[in-house]
């Protein structure tokens, strides 16, 4: 860990911090106003649907995916690590929280936090491996995909622990607000708001600056003393922890049931990718927008479950094709940029 | 034990040809075809529908294989055009995501239209003894077909002008252009060839196990594992890795259990990337 | 004077909308050897890449045998007879020397007499016939790159810095081979920063400076030009 402070001279550093503090104050409205407005609007939605259990389930799932999207945005949007294991990391959170709470009698709220730490360590490890072995996007993608599928097989195979194909019923949180019809929605909304604020604060911190620097030009960032390894792993740790917590919270809501496909690659990762392709990778509110749109579409397609897969396929193809001049270049420019034309 | 290893080789040959189809397309244009298995299963469904409709098996099989080849060609000429217009990691990423989407489309359509359809091709005749192990005819015929196809592929790549041109694009695309090779033509042809190989996988697999309409994703994953372990872009590597992993697979399924087997294969794949990203025989770093 | 075999007319080219080569016009007559000299970064490679089709020129024309080939894809340009040997060589590292040479004639399958001609020029390649190109020394790779280009039976051979990575001895050997080809009547356009070698080979030369043609003349004129002497010959 040899990150050199860009401003080694103490005086300008102090200046610069004061300036940063001032600009934070000045822009606090501009920064947090959109979050407040969005939170307010999302808070009103249940007024219309609170009588319908199934609608509330859909809305909660929407908030869950918004949380996934924000976390994925930190890992992929900020540092270009293609983690195709969003569902698996959330599932590690979900299953470990459920198992800790039910089998080890850990208080369920605490178990959610512990599950977040576990997921964070796992994701951080994946990130560390990827960075130290300097894997490029496709290899990070394959390794994390292999990890996802291993997790799925583990969940199915290790039935005595995970319930296998039948799934797992969580007992510990029975009788809590998480089991009610409407309140869990607000709990998840609160989680999303916390994540959004955290994301904003992160962007403003030295970590966010480092993310931006290595996104703009990794080589330059490295030369300027940004420890690229460290910040990539930070992103892995932070994002995975957020996924773990969101996944763990989901295990305790509603009827307290998690199944073998709750966190499956096909159910989670694909939707998160599509959501972000739609909402904009690396944007603050993109995941929320994507989550809302796809929750609605998902609900409309509910009666045609087989067609949902076709629909997601078409949307994936369409979005990534249509945005290849928009989303993909901005997306690939945040990945390692190698000069393709060094000759002259 | 011998019987388990023999089964492993039979399975491994199927893995191998599955991996070859994926590895070729990746080597040529950086597109990781995450719909490879689904395309193969689509071919199986075509054959199944045609034979159900009363068509002779050989003709149905031929049509099914050609259909997958055409599908590959069409995908290359449409969606992949956009991919090849990109460069570097943007290209890889776009290719991967588009083919992921295509895989979902094919899988969803098959599940919707033919939820319980499966292709089985019975090969008549008594089992044959090999090294003291009684082998089913289906396994032997399937393996013989794959070995023949493998030999043809080797001959194609080593001896024909177009085969050499294909290797030249894999090794140095600009070099290939400078000697007059048109990479687009090579890529389209090889995407079609990859589809044909996928169709052959479906056919040979149907001689040993039923190929169901929803098996595509699983086949894609096996193809991916094999291609990575063999070294992305390496044809001989894919065959070698296929046979090794086939043996690993049957041995571990026999002695440990089947859900662990898939995990073992996935872990081998991940560990290969971490320790030796170029795989067994790949040379590109 | 007859129509030149290769003629660049107002060629502009560059990267990301930023031209590196500005309004370059030059011509090469059949059987002539022409050198484009200039320092590193003068735009020589960009110019040649725009001619051979590896990148599209942003403006201007390239006439080959009277036809405008500007913007044609690289494989078309190569097949039409303008064959480019880049400084990075772009060999096929996991193929044998022989396979590299055979591919040079693509899409034709060359007769062995054609291979023998290349082996006569570079006996070293004959010795290494079955070795993988990626395992050869820099000098051998340079021979192979030129040999592979010759397999296409080029009407114009374009070379970019053929001395890249070569010792002075090997560099002059490479130019001896090119001189042999020139004497046999091959049309050559070479971009080079090792000015004495290039002017030793060429009949005429152009000086490329910051992407523009600054000076042109016969090889002797350029050798005796005080500016060229000062900038490139160190005297």
Which labels suit this protein?
heterotrimer; A: 344 residues; mainly alpha; two-stranded antiparallel ribbon; globular; disordered N terminus; disordered C terminus; B: 285 residues; two-stranded antiparallel sheet; 4 strands
What's the end-to-end separation of chain C, in Å? Answer: 35 Å
Which topology of the largest domain in chain C does CATH recognise?
A: Rossmann fold
Order of helices and strands of chain C: EEEHEEHEHHHHEHEHEEHH
Instruction: Report strand % of chain B.
Output: under 5%
The total of beta strands of chain C comes to 10
Shape of chain B: globular
Count of DSSP H/I helices of chain C: 10
Total domain count of chain C? 2
Portion in helices of chain C: 25-40%
Helix content estimate of chain B: over 70%
Radius of gyration of chain C from the CA trace? 17 Å
List unreliable stretches of 5+ residues of chain C.
none
Query: Order of helices and strands of chain B, N to C?
Result: HHHHHEEEHHHHEHHH
Oligomer: heterotrimer
In CATH terms, what is the architecture of the largest domain in chain C? 3-Layer(aba) Sandwich
Please outline the major beta sheet of chain C. Answer: 6 strands, mixed
Strand order of the biggest β-sheet of chain C: 6-7-8-3-9-10
Average per-residue pLDDT of chain B, rounded, comes to 92
Spatial gap, N to C terminus of chain B: 37 Å
What is the typical, i.e. mean, pLDDT of chain C?
Answer: 91
Total E-strand runs of chain B: 4
Would you write up a description of this structure?
The complex is a heterotrimer of chains A (344), B (285) and C (235). With 344 residues, chain A is an all-alpha fold. Chain A is built from 15 helices and two strands. Chain A has a two-stranded antiparallel sheet. In chain A, helix 3 (53-79) packs parallel to helix 8. The model of chain A is unreliable at 1-14, 325-332 and 334-344 (pLDDT under 50). Chain B is mostly helical and 285 residues long. Chain B has helices spanning 2-29, 36-52, 57-77, 79-84, 88-113, 137-159, 161-171, 173-178, 183-208, 216-230, 235-255, 258-275, and strands at residues 118-119, 128-130, 133-135, 211-212. In chain B, helix 1 crosses helix 7 and helix 2 crosses helix 10 (216-230). Chain B starts with a helix and ends in a 10-residue tail after the last helix. In chain C, 48% of the residues are buried. The mean pLDDT of chain C is 91. In chain C, helix 7 (168-183) links the parallel strand 7 and strand 8 (187-192). At the A-B interface, helix 6, helix 12, helix 14 and helix 15 of A face helix 5, helix 10 and helix 12 of B.
